[in-house]
Amino acid sequence: MGVSKWMIASVVVLASSSMAFADKLDDFKRAAGETGCKSIPYSDLQDNCSRQGEPMHDYCDAKKGPVTCDREGISRDLTNNLEKEKRNLDELKKKRSDVDDKKSRSSDDNEKNKLQAELEQLDKDIYAAGKAIDAAKDAIDKRRVLVNDSIYNLDKCIDYRKAVMNTFGYAQDKVRGENDTPEITELARKLRDMYEEEKRGHNLAITYKENALATCKKETL
Predict the structure, then answer these.
(1) 72 and 14, same structural domain?
(2) Residues 15 and 46 grouped into a single domain
(3) pTM (two decimals)
(4) I need a labelling partner for 8 at 20 to 30 A (CA). Which of 74, 101, 158, 180 fits?
(5) Res 17 pLDDT > 70
(6) Is 93 or 3 the better-scoring residue by pLDDT?
(7) Are residues 93 and 199 in the same domain?
């Protein structure tokens, strides 16, 4: 009895299915032995995770610039310091004016010499106060740049990290439906738990960066 075309087709389909399951099993085994994006056995999701993951690390790990404004209140302290230095300069200028007026009205040479020496010291103090104001303004300018750069980088960091976290969420939803073979089902269960840990880790990191972002926004100058 000859072999029918239907039987041949059935054998081909079964062989193809077996090969597909074997390839899929290999993908799941490899994924289960990896971490991060490489732990995703689906090429499209793994590629998307990697594309989002690279800039995520660049922005979150400060490769692109600052991602912290340090403690809250630094901007206020710098602004207060500038105002203090300005008041100090105003007081020195007023004092100089008073001493100069007193000298112009004095008829005693000894007193005039004493007042002249005081004027010379006040001139030095006024110069120093001007330099202190310049330094205070420079500190504020640097702080402004740091805060603005940090806000930009933190926004990017959070966006990319959320994208990566969501990719693990998609992968987790997908592995929940994997039941082609008992071995694939077991590996899928392991991957599902791994992705839950990935999501938890990313969520904690996002919370930390969101707190840093809130601090920076309060520090805006």
Answers:
(1) no
(2) no
(3) 0.85
(4) 180
(5) no
(6) 93
(7) yes
Between CA 166 and CA 172 the distance in angstroms is: 10
In total, how many domains does the chain have?
A: 2
Q: Look up residue 200 and give its amino acid.
A: R
Residue closest to 53 by CA, chosen among 150, 154, 153, 157: 157
Q: Are 86 and 79 in contact (CB under 8 A)?
A: no
Residue 187: closest CA among 34, 17, 58? 34
User: Which domain, by its residues, includes 13?
Assistant: 1-29
Report residue 30 as tokens: 């490899």
- CA-based nearest residue to 85, from 154, 28, 132: 132
pLDDT of residue 9: 45
**Tokens standing for residue 24:** 């899929």
Q: Lowest mean pLDDT of 7-16, 29-38, 160-169, 172-181, name the range.
A: 7-16
Q: What is the DSSP string of 88-99?
A: HHHHHHHHHHHH
In degrees rounded to 5, what are phi and psi of residue 72? -75, 140
